[in-house]
Write a structure and sequence with these properties.
The complex is a heterodimer of chains A (about 230) and B (about 425). In chain A, about 80% of the residues lie in helices and about 0% in strands. Chain A has about 230 residues and is mostly helical. The chains are: A mainly alpha (about 230), B alpha+beta (about 425). The interface between A and B is medium-sized, with 13 and 11 residues.
């Protein structure tokens, strides 16, 4: 669904800029997460350092989006769907900034893990990574395309991610008992799994905001969301 | 008297009105029609307004403007069609972006890369491309920088990397009007690079192994030349075997290079398949006998004549028979056939030897691929034979196929057209 063009050209322009900045943030946050996770899997400290350094740019963009959003609200005083789009973009950017923070957390833990011999249990992170990154991409797609169905589907997928996180944590706790010498490494892996689970939570928030912007429907905190396909 | 004056006044009035109509109202209406026609991009029948004076000059000026407008429109259309044709013909993804960072024109490669339809051509660049680094390059180009290069991974899973080149579009006054972004898929380039790297590594390895053996024995002889005659004979035999192996490998590498090169040509002659295979089988009788193999040839004499490069086809059958003999157990059976197929002639060589695992079968025509790595050395061979076979078949416009079952043997088929286009 594509929003009808506004009579007041400058509002469309300003909203377009706001959306572009949000998408820029999304791309940066996604890149940081990929860098941090590749840094973990390829044991590459440079990638971890890049993920940490890129957070600064995401923070700057967050401030810019906030400023542009407030300017837009003051100048045009939008109502109805226009207002929802502006508010959703502003809420989105705050979730994206937190996602970039999760990337930094993962990169820091990865650097610690890279100082020690490789742990085979690092593979436990793979399914979580795949699921969380797919959720992230789909949440942004739901926002861009105003795809309500895709947005709704994220909630159930988040529960699956929670389950994956619990499984990984359980296995890591078992390994801790068997091999206490590697306790620190297993703990770091547990933290990384937890950070990915948080990425899923933020993706769900983004999807909720996307549904709100497109359909004026608040799907937050609904216990009976559809189950994952 | 009064009547005369009235009539005179009326005549004057009529004359005056007629003149006003002819000089002003009529031409103005005509001018109005002309302007409306030009506005709707139609060509009026005539631009002549009035016979003389200012209106006539305006009409002629409008005609000039109309002609100029038409020429400009045609030029713009030609340019647009030219740009579209260039974009369509490009093997890279092409996106034309205006100074507001909106897509103005995309080609099918770009749309395929990002999974979009042509109707979305008015959208914001970042909504489609969604890459911060590429978006930043675009921003820099639009604000005056020169060409920017970056790389990104395409959406849609996998690890499809593209190189992105963003180039500014400038008008005559060097003002930036937009940018063109080219997306070059690097997976093909990377695959070729990997193939080249593997090839070099494999060739080096294959060359080094017999050389190391030769050097080893040479050192032994240098240290102690007075070896017992039996040992000397054994050493020379090993050295001869490995120098033969080196020659074979170099021949195969050169043969493959010639076949793959752009100037690979065929010396076409007409052969009768049955007679050709009978000749080959005669040449191989000694090798079959050495392993006590039963060789069987099935090729009807009335098979149509075939236009091929005879020496190359001999190389193909030689390689296939060589494999069949190598991988057959003593006392086994080798079957050679030529049959008529819809596309031409099929040559096949079948053995009942060790066979190839199903997972390896699709790869046996790759250079240096070996299904049975552990026993390769003892069997000899360079690992290039089947690759040469495939290339020769392809040069003739044909193709190859293989089927195999572990322990039951392997059949390799070569399909060649009756007439090869040179």
């Amino acid at each position: 669904m594509i929003a009808p063009k506004h009579i007041l050209g400058t509002f469309d322009e300003a909203l377009g800029n706001l959306r572009n900045n949000v998408l820029m943030m999304a791309s940066l946050a996604s890149r940081s997460l990929e860098n941090a996770l590749n840094g973990l899997q390829q044991r590459d400290d440079d990638l971890c350092a890049t993920a940490i350094a890129d957070d600064e740019e995401v923070d700057q963009l967050e401030k810019q989006v906030d400023k542009e959003g407030i300017d837009l609200l003051l100048r045009f005083q939008p109502v109805a769907s226009d207002l929802r789009r502006v508010v959703a973009a502003m809420k989105l950017c705050s979730n994206l900034e937190r996602m970039a923070d999760q990337a930094v957390n993962i990169a820091r833990k990865a650097r610690k893990l890279n100082r020690h011999p490789v742990l085979p249990e690092t593979d436990l992170i793979d399914p979580l990574r795949e699921h969380a990154m797919a959720m992230f991409k789909d949440s942004i797609d739901a926002f861009v395309r105003e795809d309500i169905e895709l947005g709704r589907s994220l909630k159930a997928r988040d529960r699956l991610l929670d389950e994956l996180n619990r499984n990984a944590s359980r296995q890591l706790v078992e390994r801790m008992a068997q091999d206490p010498e590697q306790l620190r490494g297993y703990l770091n892996l547990m933290f990384i799994a937890r950070h990915l689970e948080r990425v899923g939570d933020h993706a769900t928030n983004i999807a909720e905001d996307a549904v709100y912007a497109a359909a004026a429907e608040d799907i937050r905190h609904q216990p009976n969301a559809p189950a994952a396909a | 008297m009064g009547w005369v004056a009235f009539a005179l006044a009326m005549a004057l009035l009529l004359y005056g009105s007629g003149r006003v109509w002819r000089e002003w109202i009529g031409p103005t209406r005509h001018l109005d029609r002309l302007v409306q026609a030009l506005e709707s991009e139609e060509t009026p029948a005539t631009f002549l307004i009035g016979e003389r004076g200012r209106m006539r000059r305006i009409g002629l000026a409008l005609e000039g403007l109309s002609l100029r407008q038409k020429t400009l429109r045609e030029q713009a259309q030609e340019r647009e069609l030219g740009i579209q044709a260039v974009a369509r013909a490009s093997a890279d993804g092409v996106a034309l972006v205006d100074h507001e960072r909106r897509l103005r024109l995309t080609n099918s490669v770009f749309r395929g890369m990002f999974g979009i339809t042509a109707e979305r051509d008015d959208e914001s660049f970042i909504e489609i491309v969604r890459d911060a680094v590429v978006e930043r390059s675009l921003g820099e180009v639009l604000s005056g920088s020169t060409t920017q290069r970056s790389a990104m991974t395409l959406p849609g899973g996998g690890d499809r990397q593209v190189e992105v080149v963003v180039e500014p579009i400038q008008d005559e006054a060097q003002n930036i009007q937009g940018a063109v972004a080219l997306f070059r898929d690097l997976s093909g380039v990377r695959q070729t690079e990997a193939l080249r790297r593997d090839f070099v590594a494999n060739v080096s390895h294959e060359l080094r192994t017999p050389l190391a053996i030769l050097r080893g024995y040479l050192e032994t002889l240098l240290e102690n030349p007075k070896q017992p005659p039996a040992e000397l004979l054994r050493i020379f035999e090993v050295m001869e075997r490995h120098s033969n192996r080196l020659t074979l490998l170099i021949d195969d590498v050169l043969s493959l290079a010639r076949l793959e090169g752009p100037g690979a040509t065929l010396d076409l002659t007409t052969i009768r398949p049955a007679a050709f295979l009978r000749g080959m089988m005669r040449d191989w009788e000694k090798q079959f006998a050495a392993k006590n193999l039963t060789a069987n040839l099935e090729a009807a004499d009335d098979l149509p004549a075939l236009q091929v490069d005879e020496a190359r086809l001999q190389e193909v059958i030689y390689n296939l028979l060589d494999n069949a003999v190598k991988y057959s157990d003593a006392g086994g059976r080798v079957e050679v056939r030529a049959t008529r197929e819809a596309e031409g002639i099929c040559f096949s060589v079948a053995d009942r030897g060790t066979g190839i695992p199903a997972r390896d079968l699709p790869r046996i025509f790759e250079r240096f691929f070996r299904a049975d790595k552990s026993r390769q050395r003892e069997r000899g061979g360079t690992g290039l034979g089947l690759s040469i076979v495939k290339h020769i078949a392809q040069l003739h416009g044909g193709h190859v196929a293989a089927e195999s079952a572990l322990g039951a043997g392997t059949t390799v088929r070569i399909y060649l057209p009756l007439v090869t286009k040179s």
